[in-house]
Structure formats: structure tokens, C-alpha cells
Amino acid sequence: MVVLLRLICADLYKLRKTSLLRIHLFVPMIGAVSFLLYYKTAPKDTFNEISAFYEALAIAFPILIGLLCAMVMSVEEQAGNFQEMLTRTKNRALPFISKIITLLFLEIGALILALGIFDVGIQCFVRQKNFPIVTYIEIFFVLFIGNVMLYIIHLVLSFRFGKGVSIGLGIVGSLIEALMLTGIGDKWWKIIPYSWSARFVDYISLKQLSVSNYLLLRADFHNGILIAIVSSGVILILSILWFHHWDSKSSLE
């Protein structure tokens, strides 16, 4: 545990010198402020407007994740072509686990900033009726849960196939996320990781808009959460096993 904490601190220190921290924290903040400025002048449809921001945040995350995981890979590649990461500890998997935890910490920070700024802005700047604080907490958790697998997948793809694949898939993932909010996604969203965050947010928002409709779909929502948690755990284990045997020479970049 001590070794892992040191690795996390070292990762944060290295990322401090890059634009990754600024991108991960400031982009969601800028998005929140942009929506608030729009809502200040737009016709008022309170809960639908608030729900639209959460959906937009969920749709934006795959692009952000693809870019950030590519940047993490690039930092390690520049540090001796991954050799520092592979030889730093006896347990080769620990540096990879450290990368995932570091990225998830950054996601938590980004979500807290984005949701916090939006919540305060809706009440104090736009002066509209707002979701209860419990709903914000629920949205935070479902966005976090829905993105865990994406961080793992994109980190593996970055190390194995290079930056371009991670960034390209992130762009495609955001398009899929938006598409899965339509009727097309009703049947397939639970088995497509790029749809989870937006769909989860949609269900949480529905609970505020129409409790009766939410109750009809609650089992579907809960099944999706369970699938996301279990699948993310399985992918995490498989990715750790993969990285334990990974040779940096096998990277395509």
C-alpha cells in the first residue's frame, strides 16, 4: 500500500508539469459556465435544462478520457520509453494500477468542480428551481461508475496501440453516447460501456421529472448499474494481468 501511494504521488507530480491536469479540471468547469450563461438568457424549462447539462457532460467524457489516457501514455513513453514504469517496482502491475487510480482521482475532481459550479450557478446566477442535493450526489456516483471502464479500456489501448487509437475511439465513443440516448439505445445500452453514463444520468433526471415513469424503468436502471460495476471489475482484473506481461516493445507507436 505504501508503495502504491508513492507511485500515485509520483504520477501526480509528473502530470503537474503537463497540460493534463488543466484539461481534466478546467474543461468540465468551462462547460458548466457555458451552460449557465446560456440558461441565463434562454427560455426557462428548468428541469429539462438541468438534465441537458448532465447529458452533455456524460457525452463529453469519452473524448476527454481518450485524450487524457493518451497523454498519460505519452508521459511514460518520454520517460525512457516506458522503462521507468516497468522497472520501478518488483510488482509490474502496481504502476498500471497507480495510473488508473490517478486518473479516477482526477475524474472525481472534475465531477465535483463541474457539478458544484453548475449547482451554485443555477441557484445564484440563473436563479432557477434546482434538483435536490441528493440528486447531485446520485449523478456524481453514476457518472463516476459509468466512466471507470472507459478509463481502463483507453489506458490499455494507449499503451498497446498508441495515442491515435485512444483519441479516435474517444471521439467515436462520444458519438455513441449521444446516439444511445435515443430510441436506438433502448435495447442495447446496457452492453455498451459508452452509453452507461448518459443513460444513468437520464434515469436520475427522469426521477425528478416523472416519478411514475421512473418507477416503471427502475429495474432496468438498477440492472445497468450492476452490469457496469461487475464488468468494470472484470476488465480491471484482466487489464492488470495483461499489463503484468506487457512488453513495451509491443506498442505500435
What can you see in these coordinates?
This protein is mainly α. The chain has one domain (2-250). Helix content is 81%, strand content 0%. It has helices at residues 2-16, 20-41, 46-78, 83-87, 93-126, 133-161, 163-179, 193-209, 211-244. The protein is globular and about 55 Å long.
Describe this structure in a few short sentences.
It contains nine helices and no strands.
Write the layout of secondary structure elements.
Layout: H1 2-16, H2 20-41, H3 46-78, H4 83-87, H5 93-126, H6 133-161, H7 163-179, H8 193-209, H9 211-244
Pfam families: ABC2_membrane_4 (PF12730)
Organism: Anaeromicropila herbilytica
Protein name: Multidrug ABC transporter permease
Low-confidence stretches: none
Largest sheet entry: none
Distance between the termini: 32 Å
Q: Which range best describes the helical content: under 10%, 10-25%, 25-40%, 40-55%, 55-70% or over 70%?
A: over 70%
Structural class: mainly alpha
Number of domains: 1
Estimated radius of gyration: 19 Å
Q: Beta-sheet strand percentage?
A: under 5%
Following the backbone from N to C, one meets helices and strands in this order, namely HHHHHHHHH
Number of helix segments? 9
Number of strands: 0
Question: What is the mean predicted local confidence, pLDDT?
Answer: 86
Shape, please?
A: globular
Oligomer: single chain
